[in-house]
């Protein structure tokens, strides 16, 4: 099955917890703190791989979670780092945030790596909280939790040249003649159901060429296989527009040519502006010469038409030469230009106070950070919490909102009384 779009959920690993532990000497109590830090969680990393040509793996499996960091250990031992989860995608995959549509990466070059989600930081062990006043901290920090994100993977094949035309005109046959690709070829419409990619080598030069399913009139309204596959020739520099000059199917090559161009324009202006090389195929069929003359006349003098027979090989070299000649004058394909969308860790400490009768609930990213850093059973830690609330003006704000000594203040699921 060919899949060129997939919706998946990814999550980096959580950070491991720091631990609370004390040195044990044989026969003695009261050694210093030796709780180690938790390990960092694994990242979600994407890697571009040219040996892949479809996103089918991501159609069947849609959830990807990197390993969590391990908790710290006694004797100041760090917890193990969570393993990164490496996800391989075909060259030309565009990674987007599903909610905003923001582009995170264009996986354009072989081996390109992109860290899309960073694992959570490990929490600090209790030995890190030791200082001149606090000799035996009975608390440690929990690891940072990460959030799952929904992303879209979209494949936009990278090829310098695209093959365009009605079904059965001989696009796949031409691809098989100029490259080592072996696409399915048969005498019926829609033999090709998904893009095929090939590399054409001509002396010391080469180019990549993509063959897509044929297009018919009304494709923009969904006729035939529709226009979805045009996405795969959107980035090309040149389109080889193949027409069938044999008349075997009872259609007129010039009308086909106009219809395809109209569909192209309907799909995207940019695509309709890509330079086209017109190739008249099946010149081996009886009567082709006459029809070729007619076709050339209708297309107009300014436009070059290359007569070929993909089956006999007639004119194939001319097509290669023309492609290379035109390519030479064009700049190479570049990755997309976009403003990168990044998943940021919540660095802005925001809060909001919600009032429900005599209960005041504080929510926001500030609370998430406090939850990690404050140990409810530790006096010093609680004093720190109070200082943060005071310094940030939250206590004053609570007073203004009508909170008093009888009120309940809820922070991260814990209940407190108001103290100045
Ligand atoms: N006589 C003649 N037949 C040809 C030539 N090129 C291709 N054919 C035949 O035309 C038929 C269609 O060829 P394909 O290469 O599968 O055509 P396509 O454009 O890829 O078709 P779809 O994948 O269905 O869009 C096959 O039976 C080919 O053998 C040619 O130069 N001369
Ligand atoms: Mg084909």
Give me some keywords for this one.
420 residues, GMP Synthetase, Chain A, domain 3, Spo0b-associated Gtp-binding Protein, Chain: A, 20% helix, binds magnesium ion
Describe the 3D structure:
The protein has 3 domains: 1-154, Distorted Sandwich (Spo0b-associated Gtp-binding Protein, Chain: A); 161-329, 3-Layer(aba) Sandwich (Rossmann fold), CATH 3.40.50.300; 352-416, 2-Layer Sandwich (GMP Synthetase, Chain A, domain 3), CATH 3.30.300.350. The strands form 4 sheets. Strands 10-11-9-12-13-14 form a 6-stranded mixed beta sheet, with helices on both faces. It has helices at residues 57-60, 171-178, 253-267, 269-272, 288-299, 316-329, 365-373, 379-391, 394-400; strands at residues 5-11, 44-49, 63-65, 85-90, 93-97, 103-107, 113-117, 149-155, 161-164, 196-202, 205-211, 238-244, 275-281, 305-307, 352-356, 359-363, 408-411, 414-416. It is built from 9 helices and 18 strands. It is 20% helix and 23% strand. The mean pLDDT is 91. By secondary structure, the chain is an alpha/beta fold. The chain is elongated and about 100 Å long. Bound molecules: guanosine-5'-triphosphate and magnesium ion. The site of guanosine-5'-triphosphate (GTP) has 24 residues, from helix 2.
């Amino acid at each position: 099955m060919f899949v060129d779009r997939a919706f998946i959920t990814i999550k980096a690993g959580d950070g491991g917890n720091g631990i609370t532990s004390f040195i044990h000497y044989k026969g003695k109590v009261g050694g210093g703190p030796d709780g180690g830090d938790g390990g960092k969680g694994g990242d979600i990393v994407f890697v571009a791989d040219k040996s892949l040509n479809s996103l089918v793996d991501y159609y069947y499996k849609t959830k990807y979670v990197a390993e969590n960091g391990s908790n710290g250990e006694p004797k100041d031992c760090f917890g193990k780092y969570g393993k990164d989860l490496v996800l391989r995608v075909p060259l030309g995959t565009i990674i987007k945030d599903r909610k905003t549509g923001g582009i995170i990466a264009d996986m354009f070059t072989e081996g390109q790596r992109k860290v899309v989600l960073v694992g959570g930081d490990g929490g600090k062990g209790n030995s890190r909280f030791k200082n001149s006043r606090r000799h035996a901290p009975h608390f440690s920090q929990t690891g940072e939790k990460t959030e799952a994100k929904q992303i879209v993977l979209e494949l936009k094949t990278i090829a310098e040249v695209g093959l365009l035309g009605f079904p059965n005109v001989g696009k796949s046959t031409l691809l098989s003649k100029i490259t080592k690709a072996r696409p399915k070829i048969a005498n019926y419409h829609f033999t090709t159901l998904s893009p095929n990619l090939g590399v054409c080598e001509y002396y010391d030069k080469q180019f990549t060429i993509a063959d897509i399913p044929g297009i018919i009139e009304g494709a923009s309204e969904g006729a035939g296989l529709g226009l979805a596959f045009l996405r795969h020739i959107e980035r090309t520099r040149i389109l080889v527009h193949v027409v069938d000059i044999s008349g075997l199917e009872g259609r007129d090559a010039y009308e086909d040519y106009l219809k395809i161009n109209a569909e192209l324009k309907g799909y995207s202006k940019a695509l309709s502006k890509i330079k086209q090389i017109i190739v008249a195929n099946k010149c081996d069929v009886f009567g082709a010469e006459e029809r070729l003359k007619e076709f050339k006349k209708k297309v107009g003098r300014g436009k070059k038409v290359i007569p070929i027979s993909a089956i006999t090989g007639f004119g194939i070299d001319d097509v290669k030469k023309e492609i290379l000649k035109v390519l030479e004058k064009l700049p190479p394909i570049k990755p997309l230009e976009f403003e990168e969308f990044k998943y940021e860790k919540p660095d802005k400490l925001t809060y909001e106070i919600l009032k429900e009768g005599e209960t005041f609930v504080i929510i926001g990213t500030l609370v998430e950070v406090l939850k990690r850093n404050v140990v409810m059973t530790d006096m010093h830690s609680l004093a720190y919490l109070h200082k943060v609330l005071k310094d940030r003006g939250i206590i004053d704000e609570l007073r203004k909102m009508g909170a008093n000594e009888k009120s309940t203040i809820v922070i991260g699921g814990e209940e407190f009384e108001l103290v100045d």
